[in-house]
Design brief:
2 helices; single chain; about 20% strand; alpha+beta; three-stranded antiparallel sheet; Pantoate--beta-alanine Ligase, Chain: A,domain 2
Amino acid sequence: MGRVRWRGEAGQALPWMLLLGMIGLSLIVVAVRIAPVLNDAAQARTAADAAALAGAAAGEGEARTIAVANGAELLEYRRSGLTVTVLVRVGDVRARARAVAGVRWVPG
């Protein structure tokens, strides 16, 4: 028994293939545009964490040095008692981190 063909069915694969190709290209363009922003966000978080720890241990100058070494710009440095909060920027992405200076004794 053969396959029954309806009139006008021939050539239907081409429009579907074009549609899938357009969707695939659109996803690639979106991925290429988002990748640098995601990279900057990760770098900003890392720089903020490192700068906050350095600032808690050694002050604003060291926080700035560590931020620059991690490819970021230190926008804000605040110390309140033992707590240091920093805000850094990488590209258009900003990240904030907080660290507490102190020594914790662990019996052992």
